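User: Reviewer 2 asked us to show a designed sequence for the structure in our supplementary figure. I'm pasting the structure tokens here. Could you produce the per-position amino acids so we can include them in the response letter?
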């Protein structure tokens, strides 16, 4: 592909930020249109997908016709087929699965969000209209929180999990700049997308992050644009390879080694394993309870998580996510399955792989 990929999204969308960061890192040309996706697509005579999700990205099919894609995890794998340089998928089957598993993880904030979301659609809107539409957006978003389990009863659980995650990131980033080594994986971009809002947008979680994990705050800033990473101009110093050492090798082959920069399966740090324990504690129970409720036809489910009760609406998409994770695990060889299960045994993540 030579034409820039068309991206349609919103500044406040973590999934849009996830994909833009990945495209910059991989040096894949793109153009971005902010605001109303359907309207922006109509200007180019492109039919909007159903449903419209953020981001919507436009590719060409075999006949050269425009086709919209919206699910970021499959899009990342599709980009791996189109572009070979600077892959974000670890070559080790075990790391590949762990990366795949990890990829899937207040009043002041509502007041901030309602203004910002309106202004991102139309920055020159008058104050009265901004306040009017802001109230509509705030009411809609706040009233939907119960659907995804966010309410006064689960506020403590959410707060504690966020703080634990920040502490885990702080420890991990002391040893490695990314989740799986010296180069970013697809899970890095997934985590980055969510943290753009928590660290860079909403005041309450932003203040918590600045106090609890300055490394995570800096990591979010660094992740926003990694377009120069792995370039032949300074890669050696970034990866701790002395320039004279790099110059003594065949640079082209040395830096195109697909294993270069990834951690070895035999040396996965405890700081990474502990992050999977947090995933197993708060995310895996949700996937299991949601799948069971969907199977029984229940519209709402609840499950105990870390001493609290989590309750929310049943989603068919999360059932697909669970099945995709299982499918990915079943692609592993018997030996790799055994190693993977040993690595995450006791974390809770193994409960979805039987």
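Assistant: Here is a per-position design you can include in the supplement:
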């Amino acid at each position: 592909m030579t034409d820039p990929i068309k991206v349609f999204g919103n500044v406040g969308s973590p999934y849009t930020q996830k994909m833009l960061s990945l495209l910059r890192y991989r040096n894949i040309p793109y153009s971005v249109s902010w605001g109303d996706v359907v309207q922006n697509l109509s200007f180019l005579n492109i039919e909007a997908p159903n449903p419209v999700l953020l981001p919507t990205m436009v590719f060409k099919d075999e006949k050269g016709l425009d086709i919209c894609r919206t699910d970021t995890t499959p899009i990342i794998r599709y980009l791996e087929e189109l572009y070979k340089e600077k892959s974000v998928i670890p070559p080790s089957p075990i790391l590949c699965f762990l990366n795949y598993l990890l990829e899937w993880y207040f009043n002041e904030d509502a007041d901030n969000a309602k203004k910002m979301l309106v202004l991102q659609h139309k920055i020159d809107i008058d104050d009265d209209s901004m306040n009017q539409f802001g109230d509509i957006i705030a009411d809609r978003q706040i009233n939907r929180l119960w659907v995804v389990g966010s309410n006064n009863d689960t506020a403590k659980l959410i707060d504690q999990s966020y703080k634990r995650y920040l502490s885990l990131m702080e420890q991990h980033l002391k040893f490695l700049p990314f989740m799986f080594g010296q180069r970013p994986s697809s899970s890095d971009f997934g985590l980055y997308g969510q943290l753009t809002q928590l660290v860079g947008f909403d005041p309450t979680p932003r203040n918590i992050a600045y106090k609890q994990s300055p490394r995570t705050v800096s990591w979010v800033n660094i992740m926003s644009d990694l377009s120069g990473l792995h370039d032949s101009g300074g890669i050696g110093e970034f990866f701790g390879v002395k320039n004279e050492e790099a110059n003594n090798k065949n640079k082209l082959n040395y830096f195109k080694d697909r294993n270069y920069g990834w951690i070895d399966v035999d040396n996965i740090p405890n700081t990474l394993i502990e992050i999977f324990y947090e995933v197993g504690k708060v995310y895996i129970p949700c996937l299991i309870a949601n799948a069971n409720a969907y199977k029984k036809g229940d519209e709402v489910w609840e499950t105990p998580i870390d001493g609290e009760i989590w309750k929310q609406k049943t989603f068919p998409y999360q059932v697909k996510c669970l099945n995709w994770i299982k499918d990915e695990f079943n692609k592993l060889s018997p030996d790799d399955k055994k190693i993977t299960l040993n690595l995450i045994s006791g974390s809770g993540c193994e409960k979805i792989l039987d």
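For the response letter, you might also mention the following. The CA atoms of residues 44 and 66 lie 10 Å apart. The first strand starts at residue 5 and ends at 9.
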